[in-house]
Design a protein that fits this description.
CATH architecture of the largest domain in chain A: Orthogonal Bundle
Number of strands of chain A: 2
Number of domains of chain A: 2
Oligomer: heterodimer
CATH class of the largest domain in chain A: Mainly Alpha
Largest sheet of chain B: 5 strands, mixed
Helix content of chain A: over 70%
Largest sheet of chain A: 2 strands, antiparallel
Distance between the termini of chain B: 80 Å
Keywords (chain B): Signal
InterPro entries (chain B): Bact_solute-bd_prot1, SBP
Protein name (chain B): Sugar ABC transporter substrate-binding protein
CATH class of the largest domain in chain B: Alpha Beta
Radius of gyration of chain B: 25 Å
InterPro entries (chain A): MetI-like, MetI-like_sf
Pfam families (chain B): SBP_bac_1
Number of helices of chain B: 18
């Protein structure tokens, strides 16, 4: 008796929630709608507008000479010879900065992943470079580190009787990479530190009992465990550094193979004042970024996968 | 029951968000009209875009004087580097965005922007004000800011370029320079006084047409080269250019500052003040900063005409001017501020409040008749006036040219061409490429721009 009663109750309830769920789903969608519209307005509409601009002949210096030109802007963007060096500069600067900041960030994360007095203060101090605004960081490096007269680096080399280094003139790419590495090391350190602190201490103890040394424990247990965190760090770091602008504008002005895509875009739009051509460069950049994101990163992570045990 | 409740909640939520949106937009509208209708005597915020030179920073210090004399008006200074300023202001004014009420523009922009109708014509409103005395503005500077007999901008200061040198250092090395030295004499002198602690000469090397190419163009012109001939044919791949650019690099290599890509006006000024460089050929306005009370080299500096090679004069003629974009919503308030900032009284105000050697030079004839200024600027005021009146913006080089102006070509494409060429030359100066490659690429960039102006 009671069993059948339960069954009937269940059967009734099975139809009701489905209807409610549908309604709930729609009202949830309705509530989300303003946000979705807002997001589309903010991200997709500008992109469509950019595509439209890229087919226009529109130089701000000639306000009366505007019109449709089809693919002329793309033609000039692809044939001007500026695009390829710029892609190379972007890839090199991003790769060097990301790799260096992961390596150095790992070092600091391991050092901070132990108990010592003042650890909280040390950690806060280590994070500071990431909190400095990029333009301010570049200015600090330009004047107080790299400068040939008053910079600390050249003060050091003078004190050690080494030749004075003209950073921005002789080593433009290295200067940019150094500033970026300084900025992004704390970012990598934070991510890797989170990974290290999420590690099961029991496994490490077991490894120690089994007679594994520090190096073996690190390469065989800690590193595979950190792989996911490294991937996240590399991915986020690459995405942010790909669009780097400040150190180039402040230190090198795009000379010596440091004219990244972001800087090239800035030059076309704000110095060339050619809206059409700048938009075409922008669209080409987006296409290239999508290709890199889908192909290169996947291959990169496959290499990681093959090495690990996950 | 449940569903109707949810529908109600959703409806209420939608209504609330719609209300919130409406509130936001109406809020925006009211602030816009508030600042737009400010001329009627309400609160006005003037946005002023300006360049980060010392004279402009002094104006920012003195803006409170203006604000207290004109209650309700706030002047918001947006100080930028020369290159950034040019980019930001051109983009704003050309697109009619109306972000700025007063803009600082160079003599290069004024005639072009005036022709485009981007600037408010100031001729009548300044002529009708006898206390402003528009005829007191130095004639050559007034001329470069005039297009089609209309004055579109008023100079905040005018400048030429001169050679500045540390007399103590040069006399210790046994070097004497005349009033009008040649570039070869200057290069030799720089070599003699160059040492590990002090570079012989500081010259701009920062890539940018307003940075590196301001002095370099005058060097090229006095070596007999120019950007274009009088038919708009680019003349960059000529032996004169090569000789001048090679000369510039050799001088920097043997006795210039160590890191030229980082150096422009402000960096060289610091180097001179700190005793890290002995000579400097740059804007004449720098002299007033070297002679300021807080300058360690005050009274130790000597001044001469810009070095020459084949021409009689090689100084440039440049002015930074205040102009009002047509897109401003506060035209009357902006005009009032522009008049104040370029008036005779403002010049006296700077003298009294900041120091007579900081007075903005090269804008008004009357400035050079103020006794306090004559005394404070004794070292450089006469040569500044002398150079500014002897340069010839119609033909600064050896051959005739199709535009008026000295260290620039007054066509819209020039900042792009100059900027890209500056990067190519900077790569050559840093030893990453040959002079022939750099000039060949620059030639094709310049020719593409020149073709648009052939008639």
């Amino acid at each position: 008796m009671s069993v059948t009663e339960l069954d009937t109750v269940k059967a009734e309830a099975a139809t009701e929630p489905r209807r409610v769920n549908k309604r709930e789903l729609w009202s949830a969608r309705g509530l989300l709608l303003p946000a979705v519209i807002f997001l589309i307005l903010l991200t997709q509409v500008p992109f469509v507008v950019t595509i439209v601009y890229s087919s226009l002949k529109w130089n701000l210096l000639y306000p009366n000479d505007r019109g449709f030109t089809g693919f002329d802007n793309y033609k000039s963007a692809l044939t001007s010879g500026d695009l390829w060096p710029s892609i190379v500069a972007t890839v090199l600067i991003t790769a060097f900065s990301v790799i260096l900041s992961v390596v150095i960030g790992m070092l600091f994360a391991i050092l901070l992943d132990r108990e010592f007095r003042g650890r909280a203060i040390a950690r806060t101090l280590m994070i500071t470079p990431f909190l400095v605004m990029p333009a301010a960081a570049s200015l600090i490096w330009k004047y107080s580190m790299f400068d040939t007269n008053i910079g600390i680096l050249n003060w050091l080399s003078r004190a050690l009787h080494l030749p004075v280094v003209s950073w921005s003139t002789e080593h433009p790419m290295l200067s940019v990479v150094i500033v970026l590495t300084w900025q992004f090391t704390p970012f990598m350190m934070l991510i890797l530190l989170a990974g290290l602190q999420g590690q099961d201490k029991g496994i490490l103890e077991a490894a120690q009992v089994d007679g594994a040394g520090t190096w073996r424990t690190f390469t065989w247990i800690t590193l595979p465990h950190l792989r996911m965190y490294i991937e996240i760090g590399v991915l986020l770091g690459s995405v942010i550094i790909l669009q780097v602008f400040d150190p180039i504008a402040i230190l090198t002005k795009g000379t010596g193979g440091t004219k990244t895509l972001a800087y090239l875009l800035y030059e076309r739009a704000f110095i060339g004042l050619d809206v059409g051509q700048a938009a075409a460069y922008g669209v080409v950049t987006v296409i290239l970024t999508i290709i890199v994101a889908t192909v290169a990163l996947r291959t990169l992570f496959k290499v990681f996968m093959a090495g690990g045990s996950r | 029951m449940l569903s109707s409740k949810r529908a109600l909640t959703f409806g209420a939520g939608a209504l609330a968000s719609a209300l919130a949106l409406a509130a936001c937009s109406s809020g925006n509208v009211s602030t816009d009209s508030g600042s737009g209708g400010g001329d009627a005597g309400g609160k006005v915020t003037l946005n002023l875009a300006t360049v980060n030179n010392g004279q402009m920073k002094d104006m920012e210090k003195l803006k409170t004087e203006y604000e207290s004399a004109n209650p309700g008006t706030t002047v918001n200074f947006q100080v930028m580097e020369e290159g950034d300023l040019r980019a930001a202001v051109t983009a704003d004014v050309a697109s009619g965005a109306g972000q700025y009420d007063v803009v600082t523009i160079g003599a290069y922009e004024t005639p072009q922007w005036g022709a485009n109708g981007w600037l408010v014509d100031l001729t009548d409103s300044l002529k009708s004000d006898s206390s402003y005395d528009v005829d007191d503005i130095l004639p050559p500077v007034r001329d470069v800011n005039t297009y089609d007999n209309k004055l579109f901008a008023v100079p905040f200061y005018g400048e030429s370029s001169i050679l500045m040198y540390n007399k103590d250092v040069l006399s210790k090395a046994g070097v004497t320079l005349g009033d009008s030295p040649t570039w070869q004499e200057v290069a030799d002198a720089a070599k003699k006084v160059n040492s590990a602690d002090m570079s012989g000469i500081c010259m701009r090397g920062k890539p940018g047409w307003g940075d590196l190419f301001a002095p370099l163009t005058t060097v090229i012109q006095t070596f007999g080269g120019n950007w274009y001939d009088d038919q708009w044919n680019a003349t960059v791949d000529t032996p004169e250019w090569k000789e001048a650019v090679t000369f510039y690099k050799t001088m920097l290599d043997t006795s210039g500052e160590k890191d030229p890509v980082s150096y422009s006006f402000n960096e060289c000024l610091t180097a001179l003040k700190e005793g890290k460089a002995a000579m400097w050929a740059d804007a004449s306005v720098a002299a007033s900063m070297l002679e300021a009370d807080d300058s360690p080299v005050k009274g130790k500096m000597g001044y001469a005409h810009m070095p020459v090679n084949k021409t009689q004069q090689s100084g440039w003629l440049w002015s930074w001017n205040l102009a009002i974009p047509s897109s401003t919503k506060n035209k009357d308030a902006a005009l009032k501020f522009v008049k104040w900032a370029t008036s005779k009284d403002y010049i006296k105000l700077v003298g009294q409040k900041i120091g007579w050697s900081n007075v903005p030079p090269g804008s008004r004839t009357s400035t050079y008749e103020i006794p306090e200024y004559k005394e404070a600027a004794a070292a450089y005021a006469p040569i500044t006036l002398d150079v500014m009146s002897s340069v010839n913006p119609k033909q600064p080089g050896v051959n005739p040219q199709g535009w008026v102006g000295i260290q620039y070509v007054s066509i819209p494409e020039f900042q792009d061409v100059g900027n890209q060429c500056a990067q190519l030359v900077a790569d050559y100066i840093a030893g990453r490429g040959s002079v022939d490659d750099a000039l060949a690429k620059c030639q094709s960039l310049a020719q593409a721009a020149g073709d648009k102006h052939k008639s």
